[in-house]
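User: Okay, second chain of the day. Same drill as before: sequence in, C-alpha coordinates out.
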Amino acid sequence: MATSLLTTVENRSGVDSLAEAVHRPVQAVLQKRPELRTTLDGTWLGHPLHAALTDFPVGAWATGVVLDIAGLGRRKKSLHDAAFTAHAFGLAAAGVAALAGLADWSYLDGKPRRVGFVHAALNTVAAGLFGASLLLRKSGRRGAGIAASTAGFGVVLGSAWLGGVMSYHYGIGVSHRAFEQGGPSGFVPVLRNDELADGQLRRVVAEGAPILLARANGRVHAIGDTCTHLGCSLSAGRLDGERVICACHGSQFRLRDGRVMVGPATDSEPHYETRVRDGQIEVRKSGLNGAS
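Assistant: Same drill. C-alpha coordinates below.
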Protein backbone atom coordinates (compact mmCIF):
# COMPACT_ATOMS: atom_id res chain seq x y z
CA MET A 1 0.00 0.00 0.00
CA ALA A 2 2.82 2.40 0.90
CA THR A 3 4.61 1.76 -2.39
CA SER A 4 1.38 2.30 -4.32
CA LEU A 5 0.75 5.58 -2.49
CA LEU A 6 4.27 6.81 -3.22
CA THR A 7 3.94 5.94 -6.91
CA THR A 8 0.64 7.84 -7.07
CA VAL A 9 2.23 10.96 -5.55
CA GLU A 10 5.33 10.71 -7.75
CA ASN A 11 3.31 10.49 -10.96
CA ARG A 12 0.74 13.14 -10.09
CA SER A 13 1.91 15.76 -12.60
CA GLY A 14 -1.03 17.97 -11.68
CA VAL A 15 0.86 18.81 -8.48
CA ASP A 16 3.54 20.59 -10.51
CA SER A 17 1.57 23.77 -11.18
CA LEU A 18 0.69 24.14 -7.50
CA ALA A 19 4.24 23.37 -6.46
CA GLU A 20 5.67 25.87 -8.93
CA ALA A 21 3.46 28.63 -7.51
CA VAL A 22 5.23 28.14 -4.18
CA HIS A 23 8.65 27.12 -5.50
CA ARG A 24 9.29 30.23 -7.60
CA PRO A 25 8.90 32.88 -4.86
CA VAL A 26 10.75 30.78 -2.27
CA GLN A 27 13.67 30.31 -4.63
CA ALA A 28 13.69 34.03 -5.51
CA VAL A 29 13.90 35.04 -1.84
CA LEU A 30 16.70 32.60 -1.07
CA GLN A 31 18.70 33.69 -4.11
CA LYS A 32 18.50 37.30 -2.97
CA ARG A 33 19.40 36.43 0.64
CA PRO A 34 22.34 34.00 0.58
CA GLU A 35 22.95 34.49 4.31
CA LEU A 36 19.38 33.38 5.03
CA ARG A 37 19.80 30.42 2.69
CA THR A 38 23.00 29.31 4.42
CA THR A 39 21.34 29.63 7.84
CA LEU A 40 18.26 27.62 6.87
CA ASP A 41 20.29 24.98 5.03
CA GLY A 42 22.33 24.26 8.17
CA THR A 43 25.75 24.86 6.61
CA TRP A 44 26.84 26.52 9.86
CA LEU A 45 25.70 23.42 11.77
CA GLY A 46 27.46 20.89 9.54
CA HIS A 47 24.13 19.06 9.30
CA PRO A 48 20.82 19.77 7.53
CA LEU A 49 18.88 22.09 9.85
CA HIS A 50 15.43 20.83 8.87
CA ALA A 51 16.14 17.29 10.05
CA ALA A 52 17.28 18.62 13.44
CA LEU A 53 14.26 20.90 13.90
CA THR A 54 11.51 18.40 13.04
CA ASP A 55 12.13 16.48 16.27
CA PHE A 56 10.75 19.42 18.27
CA PRO A 57 7.19 19.61 16.86
CA VAL A 58 6.81 15.84 16.49
CA GLY A 59 8.10 15.25 20.02
CA ALA A 60 5.95 18.02 21.51
CA TRP A 61 2.81 16.83 19.75
CA ALA A 62 3.45 13.22 20.78
CA THR A 63 3.85 14.42 24.37
CA GLY A 64 0.59 16.35 24.11
CA VAL A 65 -1.26 13.28 22.83
CA VAL A 66 0.07 11.19 25.75
CA LEU A 67 -0.97 13.90 28.23
CA ASP A 68 -4.42 14.03 26.64
CA ILE A 69 -4.78 10.30 27.07
CA ALA A 70 -3.58 10.50 30.67
CA GLY A 71 -6.11 13.24 31.37
CA LEU A 72 -9.15 11.48 29.92
CA GLY A 73 -11.91 11.26 32.50
CA ARG A 74 -9.89 13.23 35.03
CA ARG A 75 -10.38 16.76 36.21
CA LYS A 76 -6.71 17.46 36.62
CA LYS A 77 -6.07 20.99 35.42
CA SER A 78 -2.31 20.42 35.53
CA LEU A 79 -2.55 17.63 32.93
CA HIS A 80 -4.89 19.65 30.74
CA ASP A 81 -2.64 22.71 30.91
CA ALA A 82 0.45 20.63 30.18
CA ALA A 83 -1.19 19.10 27.10
CA PHE A 84 -2.20 22.56 25.89
CA THR A 85 1.37 23.83 26.36
CA ALA A 86 2.88 20.84 24.55
CA HIS A 87 0.57 21.27 21.54
CA ALA A 88 1.21 25.04 21.45
CA PHE A 89 4.98 24.54 21.58
CA GLY A 90 4.74 21.95 18.81
CA LEU A 91 2.81 24.39 16.61
CA ALA A 92 5.40 27.13 17.11
CA ALA A 93 8.29 24.74 16.48
CA ALA A 94 6.60 23.45 13.34
CA GLY A 95 6.67 26.95 11.87
CA VAL A 96 10.43 27.21 12.33
CA ALA A 97 11.01 23.70 10.95
CA ALA A 98 8.85 24.53 7.93
CA LEU A 99 11.14 27.44 6.98
CA ALA A 100 14.16 25.13 6.91
CA GLY A 101 12.13 22.52 5.00
CA LEU A 102 11.17 25.08 2.36
CA ALA A 103 14.83 25.91 1.86
CA ASP A 104 15.69 22.23 1.31
CA TRP A 105 12.71 21.77 -1.01
CA SER A 106 13.55 24.83 -3.13
CA TYR A 107 16.43 22.96 -4.82
CA LEU A 108 14.35 20.00 -5.96
CA ASP A 109 12.52 19.18 -9.18
CA GLY A 110 10.59 16.29 -10.69
CA LYS A 111 9.34 13.51 -8.44
CA PRO A 112 11.18 14.64 -5.28
CA ARG A 113 9.58 18.09 -5.60
CA ARG A 114 6.11 16.53 -5.89
CA VAL A 115 6.60 14.31 -2.86
CA GLY A 116 8.05 17.22 -0.90
CA PHE A 117 5.08 19.40 -1.80
CA VAL A 118 2.59 16.79 -0.59
CA HIS A 119 4.70 16.36 2.56
CA ALA A 120 4.46 20.12 3.19
CA ALA A 121 0.74 20.20 2.36
CA LEU A 122 0.04 17.47 4.93
CA ASN A 123 2.07 19.38 7.52
CA THR A 124 0.00 22.47 6.79
CA VAL A 125 -3.22 20.50 7.33
CA ALA A 126 -1.81 19.11 10.59
CA ALA A 127 -0.81 22.59 11.78
CA GLY A 128 -4.35 23.80 11.02
CA LEU A 129 -5.82 20.98 13.11
CA PHE A 130 -3.50 21.68 16.02
CA GLY A 131 -4.31 25.39 15.79
CA ALA A 132 -8.03 24.58 15.84
CA SER A 133 -7.43 22.30 18.82
CA LEU A 134 -5.87 25.13 20.80
CA LEU A 135 -8.78 27.45 20.04
CA LEU A 136 -11.32 24.78 21.01
CA ARG A 137 -9.53 24.09 24.29
CA LYS A 138 -9.39 27.82 25.04
CA SER A 139 -13.14 28.07 24.52
CA GLY A 140 -13.76 25.23 26.97
CA ARG A 141 -14.50 22.53 24.35
CA ARG A 142 -11.67 20.26 25.47
CA GLY A 143 -13.16 17.06 24.00
CA ALA A 144 -13.41 18.58 20.54
CA GLY A 145 -9.91 19.98 20.99
CA ILE A 146 -8.53 16.54 21.76
CA ALA A 147 -10.28 15.12 18.71
CA ALA A 148 -8.71 17.82 16.50
CA SER A 149 -5.19 17.34 17.86
CA THR A 150 -5.46 13.55 17.63
CA ALA A 151 -6.49 13.85 13.98
CA GLY A 152 -3.64 16.28 13.46
CA PHE A 153 -1.14 13.84 14.92
CA GLY A 154 -2.40 11.14 12.56
CA VAL A 155 -1.76 13.48 9.62
CA VAL A 156 1.71 14.22 11.03
CA LEU A 157 2.54 10.51 11.03
CA GLY A 158 1.60 10.24 7.36
CA SER A 159 3.64 13.32 6.56
CA ALA A 160 6.60 11.95 8.53
CA TRP A 161 6.52 8.82 6.38
CA LEU A 162 6.85 10.99 3.28
CA GLY A 163 9.69 12.86 4.99
CA GLY A 164 11.45 9.53 5.42
CA VAL A 165 10.95 8.85 1.72
CA MET A 166 12.64 12.16 0.94
CA SER A 167 15.71 11.22 2.97
CA TYR A 168 16.03 7.48 2.46
CA HIS A 169 14.57 7.03 -1.03
CA TYR A 170 15.76 10.21 -2.74
CA GLY A 171 18.77 10.97 -0.54
CA ILE A 172 17.73 14.55 0.25
CA GLY A 173 19.85 15.86 3.11
CA VAL A 174 22.30 12.96 2.81
CA SER A 175 25.92 13.58 1.81
CA HIS A 176 26.22 12.39 -1.77
CA ARG A 177 29.78 11.23 -1.25
CA ALA A 178 28.87 8.99 1.70
CA PHE A 179 29.49 5.75 -0.18
CA GLU A 180 32.40 6.78 -2.37
CA GLN A 181 35.75 5.13 -1.97
CA GLY A 182 38.31 7.01 0.08
CA GLY A 183 40.92 7.54 -2.60
CA PRO A 184 44.63 6.72 -2.66
CA SER A 185 46.60 6.65 0.58
CA GLY A 186 49.85 7.05 -1.36
CA PHE A 187 50.66 9.38 -4.24
CA VAL A 188 49.32 8.24 -7.61
CA PRO A 189 49.50 10.07 -10.98
CA VAL A 190 46.16 11.34 -12.28
CA LEU A 191 46.87 13.94 -15.00
CA ARG A 192 49.70 15.45 -17.01
CA ASN A 193 50.74 18.75 -15.48
CA ASP A 194 50.50 20.60 -18.81
CA GLU A 195 46.85 19.49 -19.20
CA LEU A 196 45.69 21.70 -16.30
CA ALA A 197 45.75 25.41 -17.07
CA ASP A 198 45.52 28.13 -14.44
CA GLY A 199 41.88 28.72 -13.52
CA GLN A 200 40.82 25.37 -14.96
CA LEU A 201 38.79 22.60 -13.29
CA ARG A 202 39.28 18.94 -14.21
CA ARG A 203 37.63 15.76 -12.96
CA VAL A 204 39.85 12.71 -12.48
CA VAL A 205 39.35 9.35 -10.77
CA ALA A 206 41.93 7.78 -8.48
CA GLU A 207 41.33 4.33 -6.97
CA GLY A 208 37.59 4.74 -7.44
CA ALA A 209 37.36 8.22 -5.93
CA PRO A 210 36.19 11.11 -8.17
CA ILE A 211 38.53 14.05 -7.57
CA LEU A 212 38.41 17.68 -8.64
CA LEU A 213 41.73 19.14 -9.76
CA ALA A 214 41.99 22.93 -9.89
CA ARG A 215 44.88 25.25 -10.57
CA ALA A 216 44.38 28.57 -8.79
CA ASN A 217 47.07 31.25 -8.69
CA GLY A 218 49.58 28.75 -10.01
CA ARG A 219 48.93 26.17 -7.30
CA VAL A 220 47.30 22.78 -7.86
CA HIS A 221 44.49 21.83 -5.47
CA ALA A 222 42.53 18.59 -5.18
CA ILE A 223 39.26 17.94 -3.34
CA GLY A 224 36.33 15.56 -3.85
CA ASP A 225 34.49 16.19 -7.11
CA THR A 226 31.00 15.07 -6.02
CA CYS A 227 29.06 17.95 -4.49
CA THR A 228 27.87 16.72 -1.10
CA HIS A 229 24.51 18.47 -1.57
CA LEU A 230 22.85 16.65 -4.49
CA GLY A 231 25.75 14.92 -6.23
CA CYS A 232 26.63 17.30 -9.06
CA SER A 233 30.18 17.28 -10.42
CA LEU A 234 32.12 20.26 -9.11
CA SER A 235 34.26 20.20 -12.26
CA ALA A 236 31.23 21.67 -14.08
CA GLY A 237 31.31 24.67 -11.75
CA ARG A 238 33.57 27.70 -11.66
CA LEU A 239 36.41 29.14 -9.62
CA ASP A 240 36.06 32.20 -7.43
CA GLY A 241 39.51 32.91 -6.06
CA GLU A 242 40.42 29.75 -4.17
CA ARG A 243 36.86 28.48 -3.92
CA VAL A 244 34.90 26.31 -6.32
CA ILE A 245 31.21 27.12 -6.84
CA CYS A 246 28.92 24.23 -7.76
CA ALA A 247 27.08 24.85 -11.03
CA CYS A 248 23.87 23.20 -9.81
CA HIS A 249 22.90 25.07 -6.62
CA GLY A 250 25.77 27.38 -5.76
CA SER A 251 27.44 25.56 -2.88
CA GLN A 252 30.99 26.83 -2.32
CA PHE A 253 33.96 24.76 -1.17
CA ARG A 254 37.41 25.97 -0.14
CA LEU A 255 40.09 24.40 -2.30
CA ARG A 256 42.84 24.33 0.31
CA ASP A 257 41.00 21.90 2.57
CA GLY A 258 37.57 21.08 1.06
CA ARG A 259 35.60 22.97 3.69
CA VAL A 260 32.05 23.98 2.70
CA MET A 261 31.81 27.77 2.98
CA VAL A 262 28.36 28.52 1.50
CA GLY A 263 25.33 26.22 1.35
CA PRO A 264 23.09 24.53 0.49
CA ALA A 265 25.74 21.84 1.07
CA THR A 266 26.34 21.09 4.75
CA ASP A 267 29.12 18.49 4.50
CA SER A 268 32.68 19.27 3.45
CA GLU A 269 34.66 17.59 0.67
CA PRO A 270 37.58 15.20 1.18
CA HIS A 271 40.91 16.91 0.60
CA TYR A 272 43.89 15.48 -1.30
CA GLU A 273 47.53 16.46 -1.20
CA THR A 274 49.10 17.19 -4.58
CA ARG A 275 52.55 17.20 -6.08
CA VAL A 276 54.07 17.29 -9.56
CA ARG A 277 56.60 14.60 -10.45
CA ASP A 278 57.95 13.66 -13.88
CA GLY A 279 55.43 15.97 -15.53
CA GLN A 280 52.48 14.26 -13.79
CA ILE A 281 50.12 15.65 -11.15
CA GLU A 282 49.94 13.14 -8.32
CA VAL A 283 47.42 13.04 -5.46
CA ARG A 284 46.96 11.25 -2.17
CA LYS A 285 44.34 11.55 0.54
CA SER A 286 44.94 14.21 3.18
CA GLY A 287 43.84 14.41 6.79
CA LEU A 288 42.41 17.94 6.49
CA ASN A 289 38.88 17.33 5.13
CA GLY A 290 37.28 20.65 5.94
CA ALA A 291 39.53 21.71 8.82
CA SER A 292 39.49 25.42 9.60
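The longest strand covers residues 209-216.

User: Thanks, on to the next one.
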